[in-house]
Design goal:
The complex is a heterotrimer of chains A (326), B (381) and C (302). Chain A has 326 residues and is mainly α. Chain A has 14 helices and four strands. Chain A has a single domain, classed as Orthogonal Bundle (ABC transporter involved in vitamin B12 uptake, BtuC), CATH 1.10.3470. Chain A is globular, with a radius of gyration of 21 Å. The relative contact order of chain C is 0.20. Chain C has 302 residues and is mainly α. Classes of the chains: A mainly alpha (326), B alpha/beta (381), C mainly alpha (302).
């Protein structure tokens, strides 16, 4: 379990906020957006495990997300499998794929790793497009059923909201525990120096592949959730652009922090919605924000917020001291 | 204050109250628009959004519908299913629209269908895929011609020339894959033999390998299914390679832009097209002529560009909704019922007749066969 | 309808045609790849905005030609100059302030920059695809039954000219030698008095100029629009990796190989999987020879 009280309190506050949010937004379209915020948070948490803690870049995570969605979608829509069973088999299959390609891919470093994962992502995307008989090709796969629990069907935004966020909250808790454990310390050791980690007795290559696989499995679960809430999927949602968007969420939110990915996912999912007012200019505003946040908040939003609050706090403290002296 | 000025003030106040009361009595009728204004399908979404806004403005300038203004709330889907779903939900739950025009692509439309069906909001899609209206969904209509109508038109033309062996070259996006599916499934009925079946990517820049392969095969004609700029490159590559086979394009490139991009290589290319390209060549008896000429003229006036049949899909959709609202009122259920009763509406894409069994409403007469001659379109008889 | 005697066409002629097509696409990939390599070698940054320079070259030329009605040569020179200016401004505003940032932030910054440039181009130039006229005639030349356009020869010729100029610059001028020193060891270079900052700026200037030239010479063949940069950029990146990130002959061979494999793959195996073939080759090379095909393995410094 999470040991220190502070982070437990944070988690409890956050969970109740998630629980109560529908009271504010229920019935509105924001409910729908918040479902996607949940899915994106899940993906960002997964990528953060790999990128933020182990320091391994991936520009192909949309592929695992897409594989999860397509395996789930095809198994249920074409072969009539139960959605829950489909989610589990998709996760298992994606886990195997990730484990198999993990060994050669994670031998690479830095930009070469970025390029290899990018290549993998594009290959998977092309396969989605070309295997028309299985995936429905570029025009997509429809008729995917919603999740259900013995007759209770998750067919509204509100129901899917609770489903998606339940999974996301559990994943956040588990990943917070993981990174505070012995494994988490080993991961951070890899991040700062692989050689040093190896000297200290960490099985570097195996651990990297394991965390890569875990990250892929979580992404696959997010894919299944996406497929069964949308009930329609098409390859365009799983391309290179989305891999970049995910990366951006993690970096903007704050690498290697528990709630960073959440901030990133919230910002990047809500941003286009609020930018609708800018019409065609939204792409420029988006690009500009990306550059500016990376330049001026190198630790991401989480660090940025921390800096601002601690600055305010110290200001306040000095005021108090001054007043006391005066 | 004199009595006179008091009187004037009272009258003015009265007028003000009256006018606000009138406004309150007739709030605008809100319709939603979902267009892929940016992203890979912006060549569809942009003219569609422009046209829809233009038509709405014109309707309002002419006094609105039953004395009420029409208001268009348009969102960009970026050709992305997730964004389309969010935008559709926003239109329904926040803007409370009574009907939706669009989306532009088959993928976006398929993603949005579960939402409009559940919310019971009529939607007139501007995308072509047959999956949209087959099987029929109660609340979903479309204005773009079914791909198989274009395929039939091409196959008829080929059959009349006694051509039997064909090579396919289709783009790997939803437009191309839908065309490819129809080309394959209708081949047998027209006695066509598909001797090669190749694809190219939407962003590819060189198709000489595919054409070299086709040139080495036994095909008597090439059918290329795609939207600009791919087919223009194919026309140029074919000319470079000296491929002498007749080249057929789809209605996806039926705009002057294609001829501009392909240049001299466009000479002698055949394609099925809506009548909008040849509005001025049509006989006076043609029932679409009036709609076509006014659309082309207005689009030229507003946007200094040629009105193409993509914009035409949105023109048709808004005008069909206008007709339905005029006849039945502005509730979603009434609009849906009236849309389904639309008969013989002469629009841009063809003459629409919807029925409970047919929500696409067009026949293959919606297409004419064109040939490029002297850098312009010529009707093939 | 006669069959134009195509049935007699032999496999070897087809393969010759595939090779010729592949060579001319490959030359473009090489040129873009060299742009990547130059920046990478002097800064360690993979510039994801490289493809946008290619787009800017083509689009600006089109607009100078069609709107300002400038003569061809003037339009080309002006767009190379302006693209170079964009590259320099990009370096000054977004890269230089971040001297000590981690590579990840730099990846994101260049991606953000590419989105920004693409967005501005979209608003400024519109979303349509455009074509510019060929430099000389459009009549295909026949080489042993395979055909090639004069523009292809232009592309090949200009590519090789640029590579020769590059080689001269890096081996026979002070600035070029200084840049090579930076690429070997930036600290050592600055200790011997080389202005590293200036070298980074020059590398951005050179690669944005190269990118725009690539965009201009290919636009008559492949046409251009605001979003052509993404895929061309990625392919150029592949070429650079196959060539071991060299800013010379290695990347040129990388690009040509990539082009030929793509073309053969599309013709003989499957046209739908053409791009997949390119990236599978990339993965294989990364797995087996991550230092590139033409480089001796180096031991990594810790």
């Amino acid at each position: 379990m999470v040991r220190d009280v502070n982070s437990l309190v944070k988690y409890a506050i956050f969970s109740s906020a998630v629980l109560l949010a529908p009271l504010l937004f229920s019935g509105g379209y924001l409910m729908n957006v918040l479902v996607f915020v949940g899915i994106n948070t899940l993906l960002a948490v997964a990528l953060n495990l790999l990128l933020g803690y182990a320091g391994q870049i991936s520009l192909g995570h949309a592929a695992f997300f897409g594989l999860g969605a397509y395996i789930s979608g095809v198994a249920t829509a074409t072969y009539g499998m139960n959605p829950w069973a489909a989610l589990l088999s998709a996760a298992a299959a994606v886990g195997l794929v990730a484990f198999a390609i993990g060994f050669p891919i994670l031998k690479l470093k830095g930009h070469y790793l970025a390029m290899a994962t990018l290549g993998f992502g594009i290959i998977v995307y092309i396969v989605f497009n070309e295997t028309v008989d299985i995936t429905g090709g570029p025009s997509g796969l429809s008729g995917i059923p919603n999740f259900d629990i013995s007759g209770f069907v998750f067919d509204s935004d509100l129901k899917n909201y609770y489903l998606v966020w339940a999974v996301t909250l559990v994943t956040i808790l588990l990943s917070a525990n993981l990174v505070n454990s012995r494994i988490g310390r080993a991961l951070r050791a890899i991040n700062s120096s692989e050689v040093a980690a190896r000297v200290m007795g960490v099985n570097v290559s195996l651990l990297k592949v394991q965390i890569f696989t875990l990250s892929a499995v979580i992404s696959s679960v997010a894919g299944s959730l996406y497929a069964h809430t949308m009930t329609f999927i098409s390859p365009a949602s799983f391309g290179f652009n989305f891999s970049v968007e995910l990366l951006t969420m993690v970096v903007i939110g704050g690498l290697g922090s528990v709630y960073g990915p959440l901030f990133g996912a919230v910002l990047l999912t809500l941003l286009p919605e609020s930018l609708r007012a800018f019409q065609d200019y939204d792409i420029i505003v988006y690009g500009l924000l990306l550059v500016l946040i990376t330049m001026y908040m190198p630790g991401g939003l989480v660090r940025g917020i921390h800096v601002v609050t601690s600055f305010a706090r110290s200001k306040f403290a000095s005021e108090v001291v001054k007043n006391a002296q005066g | 204050m004199t009595v006179k000025s008091v009187k004037i003030t009272v009258v003015a106040l009265g007028l003000l109250l009256l006018s606000t009361a009138l406004c309150w009595a007739a709030p605008p009728i809100k319709i939603g628009g979902l267009f892929s204004i940016t992203g890979p399908a912006s060549f569809l979404g942009e003219p569609e959004r422009n046209t829809a806004q233009m038509v709405v403005d014109e309707i309002n300038a002419a006094g609105g519908i039953r004395g009420r203004k029409l208001q268009l709330v348009a969102y960009d889907t970026q050709g992305d299913a997730t964004k389309a779903v969010q935008a559709a939900t926003r239109l329904i739950k926040e803007d409370h629209v009574v009907a939706i025009v669009g989306p532009s692509t088959t993928g976006d439309t398929m993603a949005v269908i579960p939402i409009v069906e559940r919310a019971k909001i009529p939607m007139v899609s501007c995308a072509a895929g047959i999956k949209i209206t087959e099987p029929v969904k109660p609340w979903v209509f479309k204005t773009a011609q079914n791909d198989y109508l274009a395929v039939q038109k091409i196959y008829e033309n080929l059959a009349s020339k006694r051509i039997k062996r064909i090579a396919l070259l289709t783009v790997s996006d939803s437009f191309g894959s839908s065309g490819r599916e129809q080309l394959k499934s209708l081949a047998k009925r027209y006695g066509m033999e598909i001797v090669s079946d190749d694809t190219y990517g939407p962003k590819d820049t060189d198709m000489t390998p595919q054409l070299t392969k086709i040139r080495g095969g036994k095909a008597q004609a090439i059918i290329c299914w795609g939207t600009n700029p791919g087919p223009a490159l194919i026309a140029r590559n074919a000319k470079q390679l000296g491929v002498k086979l007749p080249l057929y394009m789809s209605h996806g490139v039926s705009s002057k832009k294609f001829i501009g991009l392909a240049g001299d290589a466009s000479e002698g290319i055949f394609l099925p097209s809506g009548r909008v390209l040849v509005a001025d060549l049509l006989p006076k008896s043609d029932r679409q002529k009036k709609s076509l000429l006014s659309f082309v003229r207005d689009y030229q006036k507003h946007f200094k560009a040629e009105g193409d049949h993509f914009g035409g899909h949105a023109w048709d959709a808004v005008m069909l909704l206008k007709g339905a609202i005029e006849r039945g009122g502005d509730t979603p259920a009434a609009i849906r019922a009236q849309l389904e009763r639309t008969r013989n509406f002469a629009g841009i894409g063809g003459i629409f007749s919807y029925s409970p069994k047919d929500h696409s409403g067009l026949t293959k007469e919606a297409f004419v066969m064109l040939e490029v001659k002297g850098r312009d379109w010529a009707l093939v008889r | 309808m006669p069959n134009c005697g195509c049935e007699t066409e032999t496999m070897s002629h087809q393969i010759l045609q595939y090779a010729l097509s592949g060579l001319s696409t490959g030359a473009i990939y090489s040129l873009i790849g060299i742009g990547f390599a130059i920046i990478y070698n002097s800064t360690g940054i993979i510039n994801f905005a490289q493809g946008e320079f290619v787009m800017l070259g083509g689009m600006m030329t089109y607009f100078f030609l069609s709107l300002l009605r400038l003569p061809m040569l003037a339009a080309m020179c002006l767009s190379i100059l302006l693209t170079t200016a964009v590259g320099v401004v990009f370096e000054r505003l977004a890269i230089r302030p971040l001297r000590n940032a981690n590579p990840l932030s730099l990846v994101i910054i260049t991606i953000g920059g590419s989105i920004l440039i693409r967005g501005i181009a979209m608003l400024q130039f519109g979303k349509d695809t455009h074509s510019i006229p060929a430099f000389s005639s459009n009549e295909p030349l026949v080489i042993a039954d395979a055909t090639i356009l004069p523009q292809n020869l232009w592309i090949l010729g200009i590519t090789f000219l640029i590579i020769a100029a590059n080689r001269y610059f890096f081996y026979h001028t002070i600035n070029g030698k200084a840049m090579r020193a930076c690429s070997h060891n930036r600290r050592a270079a600055s200790l011997v008095g080389i202005g590293v900052k200036r070298m980074v700026l020059i590398s951005f200037a050179i690669s944005s100029a190269l990118g725009s030239i690539a965009g201009i010479i290919t636009a008559p063949l492949t046409m251009t629009s605001y979003d052509v940069g993404i895929m061309l950029g990625l392919k150029g990146f592949c070429a650079a990796i196959i060539g071991g990130m060299s800013s010379g002959v290695g990347t040129v061979f990388g690009g040509l190989l990539l082009g030929i494999f793509e073309s053969l793959g599309a013709g003989l195996i499957s046209s739908g999987y053409k791009d997949a073939i390119a990236f599978i080759i990339l993965l294989l090379i990364l797995f087996i020879r991550p230092q590139g095909l033409f480089r001796k393995a180096e031991t990594e410094r810790v």
